[in-house]
UniProtKB/TrEMBL annotation:
SMART domains from the UniProt entry: HATPase_c, HisKA, PAC, PAS
PANTHER family: C4-DICARBOXYLATE TRANSPORT SENSOR PROTEIN DCTB (PTHR43065:SF46), SENSOR HISTIDINE KINASE (PTHR43065)
GO cellular component: plasma membrane
PROSITE patterns named among the record's database cross-references: HIS_KIN (PS50109), PAC (PS50113), PAS (PS50112)
Gene3D superfamilies found in the cross-reference section: 1.10.287.130, Histidine kinase-like ATPase, C-terminal domain, PAS domain
Annotated TM spans: 20-39, 46-75, 95-113
Compartment(s) of residence: Cell membrane
Record EC number: 2.7.13.3
Protein name: histidine kinase
Residues of the PAC domain: 200-252
Entry GO MF terms: ATP binding; phosphorelay sensor kinase activity
Keyword field contains GTP-binding: no
Uppermost EC category: transferase
Length: 509
C-alpha cells in the first residue's frame, strides 16, 4: 500500500513536469519560428505559418487553458512579425492570423478531449485501486473466475481460509476447491450466472488444502464489461464454522431443554399415579395377608400366595416409578464411585452371563460423590442388564470411570461410561429411551417394561448429575453419566492423574 501511494504521488508529479515541458517547448517553437521568419527574405514569409505548430504541440499537455494561452502567444507573435516585415493589413497577414486561430481552436478541443479521457482514466484507476484495497483487506474469501470456470483472482483471505496460495489457484479450474456435490452442479450455476442470475448467502462446503471441508456462506454474482456483457463471475465466501457450531450447540441445548421438560412432566404424572397406585396396592396386600392367615384350604392358599406375589411385583414397579419421579425417600451419603463399581461388578459377573465379557477401567484415585449407594448400584445393574439384553449372542461391556469438567460448572465432575457392543438403537428410539414405559428392547423377544432406563434417569438426576446416550444401530451404545465430585468431604485431588482426561464421548465399537 505504501508503494502504491508513493507511485501515484511521484507518477502525478512526473506527469505534471511533462506538461510544463510540452508547453515550454511549444512556446520555444513559436519564438524560434518567429526569429527564423524575421531572418528570412520576404519571399519566404510563408515560413511564418510554422508558428501555428505551437498550439498543436501544446495540445499534448491535455490542458485546454495552457493551449489557449500558447495560441494567443502565437497569434500575437505572428501579428508582430508580419507587421515588422511590412505586411500589416495585407491578406497574407489575415490568412496567417486566422490559420493560427483555427489551429488554436482545434488544439484546445483536442486538449479538452484528452483532459476528459485522462480524468476518466484517473477516476477508473482510483476506483480500481480502492476496489483492489477492499478485496485485499476483506475478511471474506473473494474469488473471481471467467465464464469457463478458470480462476483469475484469489485474495489473501481465500489463501488463509483454504490454504491454497494465489499462485497455485490462478489459472486453475474452480473445481479444485469445490465439494463433489457442488462441482457436479457447477455447470448449471455458470449457466444461471451467464443469464444474469445470482446466488445469495447459500450455505455450502469448500475443500481445503489439507483435505478437510469448511462450512461457508457464499454469494455469486456476474461480472459485466462496459457493454453489459457477462464476462465472468465473482464468489464471496464467508467462514461460518463458528456460527454453525454455535447454532448446533443452541439446537442441542434447546433439544435437551425440551427433553428435560418432557421428562419432568412425565415424572410428575408417573409419580402421582404411582403414589396413588401404591396406596391401593398396600390395601390389597393387607387384605391378602389377612386372607392367607385365615384360610386353611391348600388350593385357596396357593392362589392367594400367587396373588400376593403379583401385587408385590406391582409394588416394585411403583417404586421404580417413584424413583424416576424422584419422590422416593433417599439417604444420600459420600461414597466412592470406584468402590460402587467394584462391589457391583461382583454381582454383575454372576448376572450378565458367561458369553459377555465385562471390562472395567477405574480412575486411579477415589471419586467421592454424594448419592444413595443402593440406588446407584441399582442404576449400574439396570444399565448392565440393558446392555446384556442388547447382546443376545454375546459381546463386551466396558465400565469406565474418570473425571471431567463441564462448561456450566466450575467444579470437576465424576464421569461414568457404560459401553456395550450390542445392537444399538435408531435415533427415533434413542430420543425416548429415558421415558417411562417406553422399552428399548425388541418387541419380538417380548421383554422389558420400559422402566429400567427411566429409573436410572431418576437416580442420576436426583444425585445432581446428568446422563446422555450415544448409540448407533449395529454398533453399540454408550451411556455417559456425570456426577458432581464431593471434594470438600475427602480433600482428594482428582485432576492430577492420567485418567482424568475427558474423551467427550467414549468411542462406540
Amino acid at each position: 500500500m505504501r508503494y502504491e501511494s508513493w507511485r501515484r504521488e511521484h507518477g502525478s508529479l512526473t506527469h505534471g513536469w511533462w506538461r510544463v515541458g510540452v508547453v515550454s517547448f511549444s512556446v520555444l517553437i513559436i519564438i524560434m519560428a518567429s526569429l527564423v521568419d524575421l531572418a528570412t527574405p520576404r519571399e519566404l514569409t510563408a515560413f511564418g505559418l510554422v508558428i501555428a505548430a505551437g498550439p498543436v504541440l501544446a495540445a499534448a499537455s491535455a490542458r485546454p487553458w495552457a493551449v489557449a494561452a500558447v495560441g494567443a502567444f502565437a497569434w500575437v507573435t505572428a501579428w508582430a512579425t508580419s507587421s515588422w516585415e511590412g505586411l500589416g493589413g495585407t491578406t497574407y497577414q489575415q490568412v496567417r492570423l486566422w490559420v493560427i486561430v483555427g489551429m488554436t481552436v482545434l488544439s484546445v478541443a483536442v486538449a479538452y478531449s484528452q483532459h476528459v479521457l485522462e480524468r476518466r482514466a484517473n477516476q477508473g484507476a482510483a476506483y480500481e485501486s480502492t476496489l483492489a484495497t477492499i478485496i485485499e483487506s476483506s475478511e471474506d474469501a473473494i474469488i473471481a473466475m471467467d465464464m469457463s470456470g478458470i480462476i483469475v483472482s484469489w485474495n489473501p483471505s481465500a489463501e488463509r481460509m483454504y490454504g491454497y496460495a494465489a499462485t497455485e489457484m490462478i489459472g486453475k479450474p474452480v473445481h479444485g476447491y469445490l465439494s463433489p456435490e457442488r462441482a457436479a452442479i457447477f455447470p448449471q450455476i455458470m449457466e444461471d450466472i451467464r443469464q444474469g442470475g445470482r446466488i445469495s448467502h447459500f450455505q455450502t462446503r469448500r475443500l481445503c488444502r489439507d483435505g478437510t471441508y469448511l462450512d461457508v456462506s457464499t454469494s455469486v454474482s456476474p461480472i459485466r464489461d462496459r457493454h453489459g456483457t457477462v464476462v465472468g463471475m465473482a464468489a464471496i465466501d464467508r467462514d461460518i464454522t463458528t456460527l454453525k457450531r454455535a447454532q448446533d450447540q443452541r439446537e442441542q441445548i434447546l433439544e435437551r431443554s425440551a427433553r428435560a421438560e418432557r421428562l419432568e412432566s412425565l415424572g410428575q404424572l408417573a409419580g402421582g399415579i404411582a403414589h396413588d397406585f401404591n396406596n391401593l396396592l398396600a390395601i390389597n396386600l393387607n387384605y391378602l395377608e389377612f386372607a392367607l392367615e385365615q384360610t386353611t384350604d391348600p388350593d385357596t392358599h396357593h392362589d392367594l400366595t400367587r396373588a400376593k406375589a403379583s401385587a408385590e411385583r406391582a409394588r416394585d414397579l411403583t417404586r421404580q416409578l417413584l424413583v424416576f419421579a424422584r419422590k422416593q425417600p433417599t439417604t444420600a451419603e459420600t461414597i466412592d464411585l470406584n468402590t460402587v463399581i467394584t462391589e457391583t461388578r461382583t454381582l454383575l459377573d454372576r448376572t450378565i452371563g458367561a458369553n459377555i465379557e465385562l471390562i472395567t477401567h477405574l480412575h486411579p484415585q477415589p471419586l467421592p460423590i454424594r448419592a444413595d449407594r443402593a440406588r446407584l448400584e441399582q442404576a449400574l445393574l439396570n444399565l448392565a442388564i440393558n446392555a446384556r439384553d442388547a447382546m443376545p449372542d454375546g459381546g463386551m461391556i466396558i465400565i469406565e470411570s474418570g473425571t471431567t469438567t463441564i462448561e456450566d460448572s466450575p467444579h470437576p465432575h465424576a464421569r461414568l461410561n457404560i459401553t456395550d457392543t450390542g445392537t444399538g438403537m435408531p435415533p427415533d428410539i434413542a430420543d425416548h429411551a429415558f421415558e417411562p414405559f417406553f422399552t428399548t428392547k425388541t418387541k419380538e423377544r417380548g421383554i422389558g417394561l420400559g422402566l429400567g432406563l427411566a429409573a436410572v434417569y431418576g437416580i442420576v438426576t436426583e444425585a445432581g448429575g446428568t446422563i446422555t446416550l450415544a448409540t448407533q444401530p449395529g454398533v453399540g451404545s454408550t451411556f455417559r453419566i456425570l456426577l458432581p465430585l464431593s471434594i470438600a468431604d475427602t480433600g482428594t485431588d482428582t485432576s492430577a492423574t492420567t485418567g482424568s482426561s475427558d474423551p467427550a464421548e467414549l468411542p462406540i465399537r
